[in-house]
């Protein structure tokens, strides 16, 4: 069984990775955005569509990264508050195996399955 110090270490490392990835994505999106803006004058530019396709793809990844970052922050907040590993919905403990696989989990497996079925 993993103790809370280990979860905290895991979450902080995850947070660092996500922050770095988010900064990278932001930089790439900014340079693609400039390319796309430069192409706006010419509707027939064959490079226009691929750039905005790539931009949308990266913007999607960035949204996921930020959601993951928010979930990681929330998990660190629960660790600090002493409520980490307790289902936010039903108040029952989350199985250690689930937390090890998904340290940001805020729902126990029962509630998570109920929510995803909705
Ligand atoms: Zn629950």
TrEMBL record:
<keyword id="KW-0863">Zinc-finger</keyword>
<feature type="region of interest" description="Disordered">
    <location>
        <begin position="35"/>
        <end position="54"/>
    </location>
</feature>
<dbReference type="InterPro" id="IPR000962">
    <property type="entry name" value="Znf_DskA_TraR"/>
</dbReference>
<feature type="domain" description="Zinc finger DksA/TraR C4-type">
    <location>
        <begin position="82"/>
        <end position="115"/>
    </location>
</feature>
<feature type="zinc finger region" description="dksA C4-type">
    <location>
        <begin position="87"/>
        <end position="111"/>
    </location>
</feature>
<dbReference type="Pfam" id="PF01258">
    <property type="entry name" value="zf-dskA_traR"/>
</dbReference>
<keyword id="KW-0862">Zinc</keyword>
<protein>
    <submittedName>
        <fullName>TraR/DksA C4-type zinc finger protein</fullName>
    </submittedName>
</protein>
<keyword id="KW-0479">Metal-binding</keyword>
